[in-house]
Amino acid sequence: MTSRQFVTFDVANEFFGVPVEIVQEVLLNEKYTPMPLAPDGWGGLFNLRGEVIGTVDLQVRFGRPRRSMSGPIVNVVVLVGGEPVSLLVDRIGLVADLDDAAFELPPDTLTGPTRAMIVGSYKTEDRLLLVLDVDECVNTARAAI
């Protein structure tokens, strides 16, 4: 039996996960610099130990209103094409170890902009975990077309 590990988190009361191997770190941050002329899904920039990190507001990517960028926000810093990008989330969860045999295609009931960003799902004990396609999440240019 093979399994995969996912870092889990909530965005707008939905349960998501990304493969643990692409997660650089999880942190709280309060100071963001706006990104003028950036596509809607970008939340801002912040400095992480001398490296400038762009943030993607998953609420906007999922068709919801933009979050307030004041106060501490949970950042899941993932590697996309070898570069760090932060996904802004509401709450971080645990690392889930899930059996590959339990993986399913995205549910047919999933519609709207979120559907293109989901590669599949797992039924956990109490919730449906939606697995994000991180490359698609950070592709905010496609959302603007």
Word description of this protein:
- This protein is mainly beta.
- It has a single domain (3-140), classed as OB fold (Dihydrolipoamide Acetyltransferase, E2P), CATH 2.40.50.
- The chain has 3 helices and 10 strands; from the N terminus they run βββββαβββββαα.
- It has helices spanning 58-61, 134-137, 140-144, and strands at residues 3-11, 14-19, 23-29, 42-48, 51-57, 73-80, 83-89, 91-99, 118-123, 128-132.
- The strands form 2 sheets. The protein has a 5-stranded mixed beta sheet. A 5-stranded mixed beta sheet has the order 3-6-7-5-4.
Q: Overall pLDDT, averaged?
A: 91
**Intertermini distance:** 42 Å
Beta-strand percentage range = over 45%
The named CATH superfamily: CheA-289, Domain 4
Q: Give the helix level as a range of percent.
A: under 10%
Judging from the principal axes of the Cα atoms, what is the shape? globular
Q: Please identify the top-level CATH class.
A: Mainly Beta
Domain tally: 1
* Spatial strand order of the main sheet: 8-1-2-10-9
Tally the helices: what do you get?
3
Integer-rounded radius of gyration: 15 Å
